Amino acid sequence: MTPVLTKTATTVKSPALPAEWRDFLALTKPRVMVLVVYTGIIGMLMAPVALPLALGFTAILCIALAAGASGALNQWYEADIDALMKRTMKRPLPDGRMDAQSALHFGVGLSGFAVLTMGFALNWLAAGILLGSILFYVVIYTVWLKRRTPQNIVIGGAAGAFPPLIGWAAATGQVSALPVLMFALVFFWTPPHFWSLALFMEADYGAAGVPMMPNVAGERSTRRQILFYTLPMAVCAIAPWALGMTGLVYGIAAIVLTAIFAALAFRVSKRTSDAAMKAERQLFKYSILYLFALFGVLLVDKFI
């Protein structure tokens, strides 16, 4: 039976001082935001319609603010389990540098501003997808899935896959096959990326009672699933070239970059638990480089 973690307020410290601007910035998870903004920019620039500079900047700003709002609301809801993990216990809420109400108001306010600005400045399709990405991350992933099932990151990974769709929709007012493939690529990339982290952070998640795949299904099963999800990811990565949406430059780069990813995933899948740490870290680090490089080559290929 899959363990269910109930929300409890346990070791979160009481705020002692008013929060500083750095604490509000930390709520937005700026490291995560970089990848979100990057894929959103590529989605917008790959569109057949070029936005004026001011509107393009507005679209990306809205994507960034929505990502920050999602991070803030995530930290507001998860302050109790953040306080139990070494990786997160120094965040503003569990460390007592901010009260929960401030984080909630900040997250809701950013969400509303981002969605309304996108709607009025660009179009309401992009605004609707933007709102859907926030709700998916906060309600579906954070509130519903994360504490209940080891499949949390599989379904919840869709939240991080929306930016290319949003960028494309902001430019064109519609959605077509290429941004859908970009969405699918990030969606299937997320489990291998995140589970490779979860494997060497297993003790941290176990201490917080979060039912991540290694803690529930075991390390061996998690390694197999990393390889399993790499296969549809590879298909999505190569499909834009195979379907004639991109040129040869992207096709060659996609094949080479994905082959390296698959080799690392295969190595992780075959390791024993005692020997896996190095392979897991290598896959996790490369997975970040992989997504940056693959999306970058998409853009290079377009202009070549």
Short description:
This protein is an all-alpha fold and 304 residues long. The chain is built from 15 helices and no strands. The chain is flat, with a radius of gyration of 20 Å.
Can you put this structure into words, describing what you see?
The protein has 304 residues and is mainly α. The protein has helices spanning 21-27, 30-46, 53-77, 79-82, 100-121, 124-145, 152-156, 158-161, 163-172, 177-200, 202-208, 213-216, 219-242, 248-270, 277-303. Helix 2 packs parallel to helix 15 and helix 5 (100-121) packs antiparallel against helix 6 (124-145). Residues 1-6 have low confidence and may be disordered. It catalyses: heme b + (2E,6E)-farnesyl diphosphate + H2O = Fe(II)-heme o + diphosphate.
Give the biggest beta sheet: none
Could you estimate the helical fraction of the residues in percent? over 70%
CATH architecture of the largest domain: Orthogonal Bundle
Please write the string of helix (H) and strand (E) elements: HHHHHHHHHHHHHHH
Chain-averaged pLDDT:
88
Using only C-alpha atoms, the radius of gyration works out to 20 Å
Amino-to-carboxy terminus distance:
53 Å
Proportion of residues in β-strands? under 5%
> Which segments are poorly predicted (pLDDT under 50) over 5 or more consecutive residues?
1-6
Structural class by secondary-structure content: mainly alpha
Pathway: Porphyrin-containing compound metabolism; heme O biosynthesis; heme O from protoheme: step 1/1
Function: Converts heme B (protoheme IX) to heme O by substitution of the vinyl group on carbon 2 of heme B porphyrin ring with a hydroxyethyl farnesyl side group.
EC number: 2.5.1.141
Enzyme class: transferase
